[in-house]
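Example record

One chain of 383 residues, shown exactly as stored in the release files.
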Amino acid sequence: MARSEIACDPAKTAAPLPARSVEQPVARPSRVESLDYLRGAMACAVMFFHYVSWGFGPLDNDTVLGRLGIYAVSSFYVLSGLSLGLAYRDRLGSLKDLRGYAIKRLFRIVPLYATVTILATSLSLWLGTRHVSIGEFLLNISLVFGFIAPEMAIPTGGWSIGNEVVFYFFFPAFLLLGRRSLACFSLACALVLGLHLWYAFSVIDPAVPLSDQWPAYVSVANQLFLFVAGIIISRISMAPHGAWLLLVIGAAAIFVLMPVCNESPSGLVAGLPRAVFTAVVVAGVAGACWCGMRIPGPTGRLLRLIGESCYAIYLLHPLIPRIAVKPLTALGVEGWCAYALCFVVTIVVSIASWRWLESPMMQLGNRIVRGKPSGVESGKGVA
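Predicted structure tokens for this chain:
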């Protein structure tokens, strides 16, 4: 992710309420389990994409996995804006609220990212694969790099996390603007959309390798609309209904079937494909939010747990193969089997990270703000 690799929003969400005016205050909602499923699926898709491309070569633009390598991260941005929009739609009206919001965001995002940054830096120094300056390291540990140059991320995919921090910084302004003036909020959203399309049609060149345009692609300005689109979805309260699943299916069909003539990865993020795939991602997340899907039993619990662990899956999955693949292949383990083992290990380690690092740190943040964990932002859910 550079994050994105990503970009998984680690935040938990709240369930949509019955339809009502966007200006009318609403009670704090409960978790939307269907978004947990989607979040976990997208984190696993990014991991699959990297493991297949690292183990067997680049993926074509017409493959589903090749497209998910780009747009699974995009979905995390939409999920992040939606999650925060639902959880905070009736809050952040005072300086005390803003202080609490900032503390909870820091305790949610920083502990794991700092841990992975230390691990990635140590591994790079040990293997001699990358020189990391003290300045780069400090900018990553503090997560300030997202405001300066997201491409400076040390962990693979860390660029999307840098973007997320910038989005978190500006989120209260978007929220308060939406409350005070629907016209001004709509104008701001239109301007952000215009910026997104300008990058797609004028800045990113489909004929130039994406690696040569990486700073432009990972820039906050290019990705911001995806986060704002999530906020917009959170303001359109719809009654949960299984019929919304048709929107998800339709979006998935367009995502799979739309032709992309350009063979370079840049062809997926420029011009008409960028506009269409962005619309597909936003529609798919909205449909997942409103479909009200709940999977009972052990399967549902496992999918929720993977969704809760998505942040760790996203950040940790690039590290596991760097440590394990060469020793496994030296022992005679075939490449595909080595990456399959890395997949399993990543899931297990990520679940452990959620239970023993991320969740306790979130609860600590809650105690600092309120004296005890509670509600959506306790260890059982993050906003």
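Notes: The radius of gyration is 20 Å.
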